[in-house]
């Protein structure tokens, strides 16, 4: 039974990689389908901005996927997943209206919220006695008699 937990964690990590790849693939295919539909059936134009937008979203997806693989066992894993979800949502919704890029404003707001929570937790502990702190008796001050 040695190494059984390592096998389970490897299986879990492989399934997470597979789900992330599927999510990226589905969002990319939806983006291309919606863009193709709007060009061929709605008469909109295919511009350089569309190409740059698609390439930048694909590059961000690739970078986030690689970062998720690198930081899979660290503190940043959940945050990177959140960023990937936001990027995939933007990739799909930007086809409907250009203002869907504003969804990216959720990211700094989210980091600001997390930072304020951490600051509040820190401020909440100021002035309280730490249970793990070893208290030493205060040094006594010797007064000398003057003649």
Oligomer: single chain
Helical residue percent band:
55-70%
Percentage of residues in DSSP E strands = under 5%
Largest sheet: none
Structure overview:
This protein has 147 residues and is mainly alpha-helical. The protein has a domain at 12-101. Helix content is 65%, strand content 0%. It is built from four helices and no strands. Helix 1 (4-40) packs antiparallel against helix 2 (48-70) and helix 1 packs parallel to helix 3 (77-93).
Q: What tags apply to this protein structure?
A:
147 residues, mainly alpha, 4 helices, 0% strand
Topology diagram in text:
Blueprint: H1 4-40, H2 48-70, H3 77-93, H4 106-124
Helix pairs in contact: 1-2, 1-3, 2-3
Brief summary:
By secondary structure, the chain is mainly α.
């Amino acid at each position: 039974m040695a190494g059984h937990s390592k096998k389970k964690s490897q299986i879990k990590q492989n399934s997470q990689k597979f789900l992330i790849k599927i999510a990226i693939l589905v969002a990319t295919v939806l983006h291309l389908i919606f863009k193709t539909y709007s060009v061929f059936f709605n008469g909109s134009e295919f511009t350089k901005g569309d190409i740059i937008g698609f390439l930048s979203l694909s590059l961000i997806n690739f970078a986030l996927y690689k970062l998720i693989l690198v930081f899979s066992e660290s503190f940043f894993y959940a945050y990177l997943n959140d960023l990937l979800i936001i990027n995939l949502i933007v990739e799909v919704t930007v086809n409907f209206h250009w203002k869907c890029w504003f969804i990216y404003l959720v990211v700094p707001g989210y980091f600001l919220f997390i930072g304020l929570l951490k600051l509040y937790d820190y401020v909440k502990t100021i002035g309280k006695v730490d249970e793990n702190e070893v208290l030493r008796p205060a040094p006594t001050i010797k007064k000398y008699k003057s003649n």
